[in-house]
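User: Let's play a game. I give you a shape written as tokens, and you guess the letters that built it. Ready? Here's round one.
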């Protein structure tokens, strides 16, 4: 994941901003009535080439093994192409009951059509992902960096068309979605009214995307490490923030670890899961890594 990559991460101020003032109100209004949150943590992909040294020698099916180590995957493959229903059904059969897929909306909708004439492509996309059945997590829409608030009406049309029964999260990257107070307020209201998660992106080169504004009872975090020792400090900060949100009523944590060099993603994920288990009292399985003897990579 090259987005937000910097050449000198040691020069970046990784300090976390305070919560948006309205996040507490959203959590209070949508307070989780269960004792503990539902937590899904995973990587962006399961390819052996990307997750070097993660798979034991002789692994025949990467997804089958991956699903023994993690309970979720951020399915980026669906951004690049639409797969037939049979492929989704095959993926469904390879993972256990507690596993969830979080697929990205196809680029035809977000980047090529740019939310214009999207009805056909969305229906084609959904005709595939619905075959993940109860193992389908939150679908996420990621817009291009240059998709600006001047096209807000397209966002409204898309959200009105999206089926209520399929959970959705959105990621906006143009700075004006968050830095223009009027635009931000209108966007947040739209997301809240439609129970759509506002994705938080934590990456070195775009600290402005750490808006810390939740719009429903779901924290959907896309974390991009910098292959630098600061990656662990940032994860510690996330554990503290997520714990605070859980204490305020957060019910769903969906956290996906990326790296510019993906080989570190399983190790960072294992570190995060151990910390969350300790601080939240959760009992997530900790993935095995070939670096299990190392607490940290950097």
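Assistant: Ready! My guess for every position:
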């Amino acid at each position: 994941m090259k987005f937000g990559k910097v050449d000198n991460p040691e020069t970046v101020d990784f300090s976390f901003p305070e919560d948006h003032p309205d996040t507490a109100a959203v959590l209070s209004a949508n307070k989780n009535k269960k004792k503990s949150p539902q937590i899904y943590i995973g990587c962006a992909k399961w390819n052996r080439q990307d997750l070097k040294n993660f798979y034991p020698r002789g692994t025949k099916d990467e997804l089958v093994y991956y699903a023994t180590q993690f309970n979720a995957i951020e399915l980026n493959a669906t951004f690049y192409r639409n797969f037939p229903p049979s492929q989704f059904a095959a993926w469904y059969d390879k993972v256990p009951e507690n596993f969830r897929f979080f697929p990205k909306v196809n680029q035809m909708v977000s980047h090529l059509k740019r939310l214009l004439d999207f009805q056909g492509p969305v229906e084609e996309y959904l005709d595939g992902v619905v075959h993940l059945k109860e193992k389908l997590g939150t679908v996420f829409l990621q817009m291009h960096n240059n998709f600006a608030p001047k096209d807000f009406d397209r966002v409204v049309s898309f959200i009105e068309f999206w089926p209520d029964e399929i959970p959705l999260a959105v990621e906006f990257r143009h700075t004006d979605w968050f830095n223009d107070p009027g635009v931000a307020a209108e966007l947040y209201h739209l997301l809240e009214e439609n129970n759509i998660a506002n994705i938080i992106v934590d990456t070195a080169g775009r600290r402005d995307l750490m808006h810390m504004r939740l719009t429903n009872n779901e924290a959907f975090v896309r974390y991009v490490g910098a292959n630098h020792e600061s990656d662990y400090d940032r994860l510690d900060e996330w554990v503290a923030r997520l714990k605070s949100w859980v204490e305020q009523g957060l019910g769903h944590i969906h956290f996906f670890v990326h790296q510019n060099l993906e080989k570190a993603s399983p190790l960072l994920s294992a570190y995060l899961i151990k910390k969350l288990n300790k601080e939240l009292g959760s009992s997530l399985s900790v993935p095995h890594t070939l670096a299990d003897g190392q607490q940290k990579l950097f």
